[in-house]
Amino acid sequence: MSGKHSTASGALAFYSQLDDFETWKHALLAQLPGLDIRHSSALGDPADIHYALVWKPPAGFFDGMLKLRLIVNLGAGVDSLVNRADLPPGIPITRLTDPQMARMMAGYVLFAALRHARDIPHFEQAQRQGKWSYRHPRSPDEIRIAVLGLGQLGAVAATELSRLGHAVSGWSRSPKKIDGVHCHAGLATLDTVIANADILIVMLPLTPETRGILNRERLLRLPRGAAFINVARGALVDQAALTELLASGHIGTATLDVFEQEPLPATDPLWRMPNVLITPHLASVAIPSSAARQIASNILRVSAGQAPENLIDPGKAY
Length: 318
Ligand code: NAP
Ligand code: GLV
What we know:
The chain is an alpha/beta fold. It contains eight helices and twelve strands. Helix 1 crosses helix 8 (about 290-305) and helix 2 (about 100-115) packs across helix 4.
Protein backbone atom coordinates (compact mmCIF):
# COMPACT_ATOMS: atom_id res chain seq x y z
CA MET A 1 0.00 0.00 0.00
CA SER A 2 1.33 3.48 -0.77
CA GLY A 3 0.31 6.53 1.21
CA LYS A 4 0.69 8.60 -1.95
CA HIS A 5 -2.78 7.40 -2.91
CA SER A 6 -4.30 8.20 0.46
CA THR A 7 -7.92 9.22 0.36
CA ALA A 8 -8.47 9.20 4.12
CA SER A 9 -10.60 12.10 5.26
CA GLY A 10 -11.09 13.37 8.79
CA ALA A 11 -8.63 13.46 11.66
CA LEU A 12 -7.04 10.71 13.74
CA ALA A 13 -6.98 11.02 17.54
CA PHE A 14 -3.97 9.52 19.35
CA TYR A 15 -4.01 8.51 23.00
CA SER A 16 -1.35 6.56 24.87
CA GLN A 17 0.53 7.26 28.06
CA LEU A 18 3.25 4.79 27.09
CA ASP A 19 3.86 5.29 23.39
CA ASP A 20 5.64 8.23 21.80
CA PHE A 21 3.26 10.41 19.78
CA GLU A 22 5.91 11.88 17.44
CA THR A 23 7.26 8.42 16.53
CA TRP A 24 3.77 7.15 15.71
CA LYS A 25 2.89 10.32 13.82
CA HIS A 26 6.05 10.01 11.74
CA ALA A 27 5.37 6.32 10.98
CA LEU A 28 1.73 6.98 10.03
CA LEU A 29 2.54 9.99 7.87
CA ALA A 30 5.02 7.85 5.94
CA GLN A 31 2.01 5.72 4.97
CA LEU A 32 -0.69 8.40 4.75
CA PRO A 33 1.02 11.77 4.12
CA GLY A 34 -2.18 13.81 4.23
CA LEU A 35 -3.58 12.44 7.46
CA ASP A 36 -4.49 14.99 10.17
CA ILE A 37 -3.08 13.34 13.31
CA ARG A 38 -3.94 14.94 16.65
CA HIS A 39 -2.61 14.21 20.11
CA SER A 40 -5.31 13.72 22.75
CA SER A 41 -4.12 16.87 24.52
CA ALA A 42 -4.96 19.00 21.45
CA LEU A 43 -7.89 17.24 19.81
CA GLY A 44 -9.88 20.30 18.82
CA ASP A 45 -13.49 19.59 17.92
CA PRO A 46 -14.23 15.89 18.68
CA ALA A 47 -16.63 15.92 15.73
CA ASP A 48 -13.56 16.19 13.40
CA ILE A 49 -12.29 12.80 14.56
CA HIS A 50 -12.89 9.89 12.18
CA TYR A 51 -10.23 7.48 13.51
CA ALA A 52 -8.81 6.78 16.95
CA LEU A 53 -5.46 5.11 17.68
CA VAL A 54 -5.57 4.46 21.40
CA TRP A 55 -4.07 2.54 24.29
CA LYS A 56 -6.25 2.53 27.41
CA PRO A 57 -8.05 5.83 26.78
CA PRO A 58 -9.74 7.30 29.86
CA ALA A 59 -13.50 7.06 30.40
CA GLY A 60 -15.32 9.64 28.29
CA PHE A 61 -12.53 9.80 25.69
CA PHE A 62 -14.90 9.07 22.81
CA ASP A 63 -17.60 11.50 23.94
CA GLY A 64 -18.63 13.81 21.10
CA MET A 65 -16.76 11.83 18.41
CA LEU A 66 -19.91 11.62 16.35
CA LYS A 67 -18.10 10.87 13.07
CA LEU A 68 -15.87 8.13 14.47
CA ARG A 69 -15.47 5.31 11.94
CA LEU A 70 -12.62 3.20 13.27
CA ILE A 71 -10.94 2.52 16.61
CA VAL A 72 -7.48 0.98 16.46
CA ASN A 73 -6.26 -0.54 19.71
CA LEU A 74 -2.59 0.34 20.07
CA GLY A 75 -1.77 -3.16 21.24
CA ALA A 76 -2.99 -6.74 21.15
CA GLY A 77 -5.30 -7.00 24.17
CA VAL A 78 -8.57 -5.10 23.79
CA ASP A 79 -9.96 -5.65 27.29
CA SER A 80 -9.84 -1.92 28.09
CA LEU A 81 -11.91 -1.08 24.99
CA VAL A 82 -14.75 -3.57 24.89
CA ASN A 83 -18.07 -2.88 26.59
CA ARG A 84 -17.35 0.79 27.33
CA ALA A 85 -20.21 3.16 27.93
CA ASP A 86 -18.63 6.02 25.93
CA LEU A 87 -18.28 4.12 22.63
CA PRO A 88 -20.64 5.13 19.87
CA PRO A 89 -22.50 1.94 18.88
CA GLY A 90 -21.32 -0.16 15.94
CA ILE A 91 -17.86 1.38 15.53
CA PRO A 92 -15.41 -1.29 14.37
CA ILE A 93 -12.53 -1.98 16.75
CA THR A 94 -9.33 -3.43 15.35
CA ARG A 95 -6.21 -4.52 17.16
CA LEU A 96 -2.59 -4.85 16.19
CA THR A 97 -1.43 -8.25 15.00
CA ASP A 98 2.11 -7.31 14.18
CA PRO A 99 4.66 -10.09 13.48
CA GLN A 100 7.36 -7.98 15.15
CA MET A 101 5.23 -7.79 18.28
CA ALA A 102 4.89 -11.58 18.21
CA ARG A 103 8.68 -11.94 17.85
CA MET A 104 9.29 -9.58 20.77
CA MET A 105 6.82 -11.54 22.90
CA ALA A 106 8.38 -14.86 21.89
CA GLY A 107 11.76 -13.46 22.99
CA TYR A 108 10.42 -12.62 26.44
CA VAL A 109 8.65 -15.98 26.80
CA LEU A 110 11.76 -17.90 25.70
CA PHE A 111 13.87 -15.96 28.18
CA ALA A 112 11.43 -16.64 31.03
CA ALA A 113 10.90 -20.32 30.17
CA LEU A 114 14.62 -21.01 29.72
CA ARG A 115 15.36 -19.23 32.98
CA HIS A 116 13.14 -21.75 34.73
CA ALA A 117 14.16 -24.73 32.57
CA ARG A 118 17.84 -24.06 33.35
CA ASP A 119 17.19 -23.44 37.07
CA ILE A 120 18.63 -19.93 36.90
CA PRO A 121 16.64 -18.67 39.94
CA HIS A 122 18.34 -21.44 41.97
CA PHE A 123 21.81 -20.32 40.79
CA GLU A 124 21.01 -16.65 41.38
CA GLN A 125 20.07 -17.43 44.95
CA ALA A 126 23.12 -19.65 45.46
CA GLN A 127 25.39 -16.90 44.11
CA ARG A 128 23.94 -14.38 46.55
CA GLN A 129 24.96 -16.82 49.32
CA GLY A 130 28.39 -17.49 47.77
CA LYS A 131 27.51 -21.16 47.24
CA TRP A 132 28.72 -23.48 44.45
CA SER A 133 25.39 -25.29 44.28
CA TYR A 134 25.51 -27.87 41.48
CA ARG A 135 22.14 -28.90 40.07
CA HIS A 136 22.29 -31.37 37.21
CA PRO A 137 20.61 -29.93 34.07
CA ARG A 138 17.45 -31.61 32.81
CA SER A 139 17.10 -32.56 29.18
CA PRO A 140 14.70 -30.12 27.37
CA ASP A 141 12.36 -32.93 26.32
CA GLU A 142 11.81 -33.83 29.99
CA ILE A 143 10.50 -30.34 30.68
CA ARG A 144 6.82 -30.05 29.83
CA ILE A 145 5.68 -26.58 28.90
CA ALA A 146 2.04 -25.58 28.43
CA VAL A 147 0.98 -22.40 26.64
CA LEU A 148 -2.55 -21.19 27.38
CA GLY A 149 -3.73 -19.18 24.36
CA LEU A 150 -2.56 -20.10 20.86
CA GLY A 151 -3.34 -16.86 19.06
CA GLN A 152 -1.06 -14.43 17.22
CA LEU A 153 1.36 -14.39 20.14
CA GLY A 154 0.88 -17.77 21.82
CA ALA A 155 1.28 -19.82 18.64
CA VAL A 156 4.64 -18.21 17.83
CA ALA A 157 5.93 -18.67 21.38
CA ALA A 158 4.77 -22.31 21.51
CA THR A 159 6.47 -23.04 18.19
CA GLU A 160 9.75 -21.49 19.33
CA LEU A 161 9.67 -23.46 22.60
CA SER A 162 9.12 -26.68 20.70
CA ARG A 163 12.11 -25.83 18.48
CA LEU A 164 14.22 -25.82 21.64
CA GLY A 165 13.23 -29.45 22.16
CA HIS A 166 10.72 -29.01 24.97
CA ALA A 167 7.57 -31.10 25.24
CA VAL A 168 5.09 -28.33 24.42
CA SER A 169 1.34 -28.44 24.74
CA GLY A 170 -1.06 -25.62 23.96
CA TRP A 171 -4.60 -24.72 24.85
CA SER A 172 -7.16 -22.62 23.00
CA ARG A 173 -10.89 -22.21 22.55
CA SER A 174 -11.04 -23.77 19.06
CA PRO A 175 -8.96 -26.77 17.90
CA LYS A 176 -5.54 -25.94 16.39
CA LYS A 177 -2.78 -27.71 14.50
CA ILE A 178 0.70 -26.37 15.19
CA ASP A 179 3.83 -28.32 14.25
CA GLY A 180 5.61 -29.62 17.33
CA VAL A 181 2.83 -28.55 19.71
CA HIS A 182 0.32 -30.94 21.27
CA CYS A 183 -2.84 -28.85 20.96
CA HIS A 184 -5.90 -29.07 23.22
CA ALA A 185 -9.12 -27.10 23.02
CA GLY A 186 -12.01 -26.23 25.28
CA LEU A 187 -12.52 -25.83 29.01
CA ALA A 188 -12.95 -29.58 29.57
CA THR A 189 -9.26 -30.14 28.71
CA LEU A 190 -7.79 -27.27 30.73
CA ASP A 191 -7.25 -29.07 34.04
CA THR A 192 -5.32 -31.89 32.35
CA VAL A 193 -3.15 -29.41 30.44
CA ILE A 194 -2.31 -27.62 33.69
CA ALA A 195 -1.67 -30.85 35.61
CA ASN A 196 0.96 -31.83 33.04
CA ALA A 197 2.88 -28.56 32.93
CA ASP A 198 6.28 -28.11 34.54
CA ILE A 199 6.15 -24.57 33.16
CA LEU A 200 2.77 -22.90 32.58
CA ILE A 201 2.68 -19.84 30.34
CA VAL A 202 -0.44 -17.65 30.24
CA MET A 203 -1.09 -15.96 26.88
CA LEU A 204 -4.90 -15.64 26.90
CA PRO A 205 -6.92 -12.47 26.32
CA LEU A 206 -8.90 -11.11 29.28
CA THR A 207 -12.60 -11.66 28.55
CA PRO A 208 -15.68 -12.40 30.63
CA GLU A 209 -14.92 -16.12 30.01
CA THR A 210 -11.25 -16.01 30.96
CA ARG A 211 -11.34 -13.56 33.91
CA GLY A 212 -10.14 -15.49 36.96
CA ILE A 213 -9.74 -18.70 34.93
CA LEU A 214 -6.57 -19.54 36.85
CA ASN A 215 -8.26 -19.79 40.21
CA ARG A 216 -6.81 -21.42 43.30
CA GLU A 217 -8.21 -24.83 42.43
CA ARG A 218 -6.59 -24.80 38.98
CA LEU A 219 -3.28 -23.45 40.29
CA LEU A 220 -3.25 -26.32 42.78
CA ARG A 221 -3.39 -28.74 39.85
CA LEU A 222 0.11 -27.70 38.78
CA PRO A 223 2.74 -30.28 39.68
CA ARG A 224 4.55 -29.28 42.89
CA GLY A 225 7.45 -26.94 42.12
CA ALA A 226 6.16 -25.90 38.67
CA ALA A 227 7.06 -22.52 37.19
CA PHE A 228 4.38 -19.99 36.33
CA ILE A 229 4.72 -17.28 33.69
CA ASN A 230 2.04 -14.65 33.02
CA VAL A 231 2.53 -12.28 30.09
CA ALA A 232 -1.16 -11.75 29.34
CA ARG A 233 -3.31 -10.00 31.96
CA GLY A 234 -3.20 -10.10 35.75
CA ALA A 235 -6.95 -10.54 36.17
CA LEU A 236 -6.78 -13.96 34.51
CA VAL A 237 -5.25 -15.24 37.74
CA ASP A 238 -6.26 -15.27 41.40
CA GLN A 239 -3.23 -13.25 42.49
CA ALA A 240 -3.77 -13.88 46.21
CA ALA A 241 -3.84 -17.65 45.62
CA LEU A 242 -0.78 -17.41 43.37
CA THR A 243 1.10 -15.51 46.08
CA GLU A 244 0.13 -18.04 48.72
CA LEU A 245 1.15 -21.01 46.54
CA LEU A 246 4.49 -19.36 45.73
CA ALA A 247 5.07 -18.86 49.46
CA SER A 248 4.23 -22.48 50.23
CA GLY A 249 6.48 -23.77 47.42
CA HIS A 250 3.61 -25.48 45.61
CA ILE A 251 4.48 -23.16 42.75
CA GLY A 252 8.27 -23.09 42.60
CA THR A 253 8.98 -19.89 40.72
CA ALA A 254 7.16 -17.24 38.71
CA THR A 255 7.88 -14.64 36.09
CA LEU A 256 5.15 -12.02 36.13
CA ASP A 257 4.79 -9.17 33.66
CA VAL A 258 1.15 -8.35 34.44
CA PHE A 259 -0.87 -7.90 37.63
CA GLU A 260 -4.40 -7.44 38.92
CA GLN A 261 -3.48 -3.84 39.72
CA GLU A 262 -0.83 -1.99 37.72
CA PRO A 263 1.53 -0.57 38.80
CA LEU A 264 1.84 -3.37 41.36
CA PRO A 265 1.45 -1.57 44.73
CA ALA A 266 4.73 -1.13 46.63
CA THR A 267 3.23 -3.02 49.58
CA ASP A 268 2.40 -6.14 47.55
CA PRO A 269 4.18 -9.22 48.98
CA LEU A 270 5.12 -10.40 45.46
CA TRP A 271 7.82 -7.71 45.32
CA ARG A 272 9.73 -9.32 48.15
CA MET A 273 9.46 -12.99 47.15
CA PRO A 274 12.85 -14.42 46.17
CA ASN A 275 11.23 -16.90 43.76
CA VAL A 276 9.40 -14.20 41.76
CA LEU A 277 10.72 -12.10 38.89
CA ILE A 278 8.65 -8.99 38.20
CA THR A 279 8.72 -6.85 35.07
CA PRO A 280 6.46 -3.82 34.55
CA HIS A 281 4.12 -4.95 31.72
CA LEU A 282 6.47 -4.75 28.76
CA ALA A 283 6.83 -8.30 27.48
CA SER A 284 5.91 -6.95 24.06
CA VAL A 285 4.93 -3.58 22.62
CA ALA A 286 3.54 -2.25 19.36
CA ILE A 287 6.30 -1.23 16.99
CA PRO A 288 5.42 1.86 14.91
CA SER A 289 7.61 1.14 11.89
CA SER A 290 5.96 -2.22 11.29
CA ALA A 291 2.43 -1.64 12.66
CA ALA A 292 1.77 1.70 10.89
CA ARG A 293 1.23 -0.11 7.60
CA GLN A 294 -1.72 -2.19 8.88
CA ILE A 295 -3.24 0.84 10.62
CA ALA A 296 -3.00 2.94 7.45
CA SER A 297 -4.42 0.10 5.38
CA ASN A 298 -7.44 -0.13 7.68
CA ILE A 299 -7.97 3.64 7.60
CA LEU A 300 -8.05 3.47 3.80
CA ARG A 301 -10.37 0.49 3.84
CA VAL A 302 -12.83 2.22 6.15
CA SER A 303 -12.62 5.42 4.08
CA ALA A 304 -13.49 3.36 1.00
CA GLY A 305 -16.48 1.79 2.77
CA GLN A 306 -14.76 -1.60 3.24
CA ALA A 307 -14.52 -3.61 6.46
CA PRO A 308 -11.16 -3.25 8.23
CA GLU A 309 -8.88 -6.22 8.93
CA ASN A 310 -7.97 -7.59 12.39
CA LEU A 311 -11.43 -6.77 13.68
CA ILE A 312 -12.21 -7.92 17.16
CA ASP A 313 -15.36 -9.93 17.72
CA PRO A 314 -17.44 -7.97 20.28
CA GLY A 315 -19.29 -11.21 21.13
CA LYS A 316 -16.06 -12.95 22.15
CA ALA A 317 -14.43 -9.74 23.47
CA TYR A 318 -11.08 -10.49 21.76
P1 NAP B 1 -5.30 -13.63 20.13
O1 NAP B 1 -4.62 -13.71 18.80
O2 NAP B 1 -6.65 -13.06 20.19
O3 NAP B 1 -5.31 -15.13 20.71
C1 NAP B 1 -5.99 -15.44 21.88
C2 NAP B 1 -5.88 -16.95 22.11
O4 NAP B 1 -6.56 -17.25 23.34
C3 NAP B 1 -6.56 -17.76 21.01
O5 NAP B 1 -5.85 -18.96 20.78
C4 NAP B 1 -7.93 -18.07 21.61
O6 NAP B 1 -8.52 -19.25 21.15
C5 NAP B 1 -7.55 -18.24 23.06
N1 NAP B 1 -8.74 -18.04 23.89
C6 NAP B 1 -9.50 -16.94 24.03
N2 NAP B 1 -10.54 -17.16 24.85
C7 NAP B 1 -10.43 -18.46 25.23
C8 NAP B 1 -11.20 -19.28 26.05
N3 NAP B 1 -12.31 -18.85 26.68
N4 NAP B 1 -10.82 -20.55 26.22
C9 NAP B 1 -9.73 -21.03 25.59
N5 NAP B 1 -8.93 -20.29 24.79
C10 NAP B 1 -9.29 -19.01 24.62
O7 NAP B 1 -4.41 -12.84 21.17
P2 NAP B 1 -2.84 -12.52 21.10
O8 NAP B 1 -2.57 -11.46 20.10
O9 NAP B 1 -2.10 -13.80 20.98
O10 NAP B 1 -2.60 -11.89 22.54
C11 NAP B 1 -2.93 -12.59 23.72
C12 NAP B 1 -2.94 -11.62 24.89
O11 NAP B 1 -1.61 -11.26 25.25
C13 NAP B 1 -3.60 -10.27 24.63
O12 NAP B 1 -5.01 -10.37 24.73
C14 NAP B 1 -3.01 -9.41 25.71
O13 NAP B 1 -3.83 -9.44 26.87
C15 NAP B 1 -1.67 -10.07 26.01
N6 NAP B 1 -0.52 -9.22 25.65
C16 NAP B 1 0.35 -8.86 26.64
C17 NAP B 1 1.46 -8.12 26.32
C18 NAP B 1 2.47 -7.74 27.35
O14 NAP B 1 3.34 -6.93 27.09
N7 NAP B 1 2.44 -8.32 28.53
C19 NAP B 1 1.68 -7.72 24.98
C20 NAP B 1 0.77 -8.09 24.03
C21 NAP B 1 -0.33 -8.86 24.36
P3 NAP B 1 -8.99 -19.35 19.60
O15 NAP B 1 -7.72 -19.39 18.81
O16 NAP B 1 -9.73 -20.62 19.53
O17 NAP B 1 -9.80 -18.11 19.33
C1 GLV C 1 -0.14 -5.25 25.79
O1 GLV C 1 -0.36 -5.62 26.90
C2 GLV C 1 -0.99 -5.53 24.67
O2 GLV C 1 -2.08 -6.07 24.88
O3 GLV C 1 -0.62 -5.17 23.54
